[in-house]
Every structure is written in structure tokens, then in C-alpha cells.
Amino acid sequence: MPVERAMPRRTKEDAEETRHQLLEAAQRVFAEKGVSRTSLQDIAQAAGVTRGAIYWHFKNKAELFNAMMDSAILPMEQTMQQIGHDAAQDPLVELERAMLQTMASIESDARTRAIFEVATLKVEYVDELLAVKQRHVLCCEDGIRQMQRSLEEAAARRAITLPVPVAMAAPGLHALMVGLIHTWVLNPSAFKLVEVSQAAIGTYLAGLGLRL
């Protein structure tokens, strides 16, 4: 009986390990060949498994790519989603902290940096990867909505009217963040991502009248 109980657990652990191997292999091969030029067979070979093992976990390359992205992005999304849960906290401080934590993760963690490099430089939103574009669009929309809520609450707390509608300010702030990431990934040695982001975001928020 003890052996029979252990076997399913081992099987589950093996499946999780195989999934992890596939995600790590996908990141390496995507970075080397580009997403559109990478086949599932390429990834299976790099992971040391059969192509059938990929289909056990992922129905296609787009689903595999999105799972790879989620492994890096979900912790950041969860950080953003925590904003506004504590009424005692300044929503502007929370927003700025969450944005800089995202930048710090990209700058300091090699795997996160590699995944963002693939996402920004090695993917084409064509054919089977249109589902990847849809996931990216949803992430952007969620991020902008959270920024808009935070900016609205920050303005209300300070009893000020922003110089531009918050529906314009939020996409602008999001674009600033995305642009910083993209530019840094192109050449990480050009500047310190967190340091420059802190200055740029602070300047943007000051321009909105939210910071002195």
C-alpha cells in the first residue's frame, strides 16, 4: 500500500519536471532561432523528450510560449493586482513600487531577462502565434486598467485634477514602462534599468502633478 500511494505522487512530480524542462528548453531555443523558426520538435530535442511529451502538456507552440511568458509575468501581475487592497496605503506609492519591482526582476534575474528578450526581440505575431498576440494585448489592457485606477485614486486623494484625462495618462505611463524595458533589453549595458526607470517614472508622475 505505501508503494502504491507513492507512485501517483512520483508520476505527478515527473510530469511537473518534464513541463519545467520543456519551458526551459523553449526559452533557450526561442532565443537562438526565433519563435517562428522554432518547431515543437526542436524544443522536444532540446529538452530530451519526445514530441508526444510536449502535446501532453501543451496543445501547440502558442500555448507553450504563453506558459513560458506566464512563468515570468504572473508574479509581476500579482504584484500589480495587490495595489489598492489596503486603504491606508498611497496608491501612487504602491503603483511606483510595483513598477520598479518589475524592473528589478528583469534587471537582476537572468531567466526573467532572457524571457523578456525573447518576447521583445524574437517573436512575430503571425499565423499560429496570433494567440500570443492576444495574450500580450490582454496583459497590456490589464496593466493599463490598473494604472488608470491607481492614478485616479492618487488624484482623488490629493484633491487635484490631472492636466490630461486619466484615460490618456495611464496608456502613456504604460508605454513609458514598456519602452524602457524594450530599450534596455536591446542593450543591457547601456544603462541601469531600475535607476533610469525610477527617474523616468518619477518625472512622468511629477508632470501629471502627482509629485512635487
Give me some keywords for this one.
about 210 residues; mainly alpha; Arc Repressor Mutant, subunit A; Tetracycline Repressor, domain 2; 9 helices; elongated; disordered N terminus
Commentary on this structure:
The protein has two domains: 1-58, Homeodomain-like (Arc Repressor Mutant, subunit A, Orthogonal Bundle); 60-207, Tetracycline Repressor, domain 2 (Orthogonal Bundle), CATH 1.10.357. The protein is mainly α. The relative contact order is 0.11. The chain is built from nine helices and no strands. The longest helix has 32 residues, at 2-33. Helix 1 (2-33) crosses helix 2 (40-47). Helix content is 77%, strand content 0%.
CATH-derived architecture of the largest domain: Orthogonal Bundle
Largest sheet descriptor:
none
List low-confidence stretches.
Answer: 1-7
Specify the CATH homologous superfamily of the largest domain. Answer: Tetracycline Repressor, domain 2
Mean pLDDT: 88
Number of domains: 2
Radius of gyration: 20 Å
The global form is: elongated
Summed up:
With 212 residues, the chain is mainly alpha-helical. It has helices spanning 2-33, 40-47, 51-57, 61-81, 91-108, 110-121, 130-158, 166-186, 193-207.
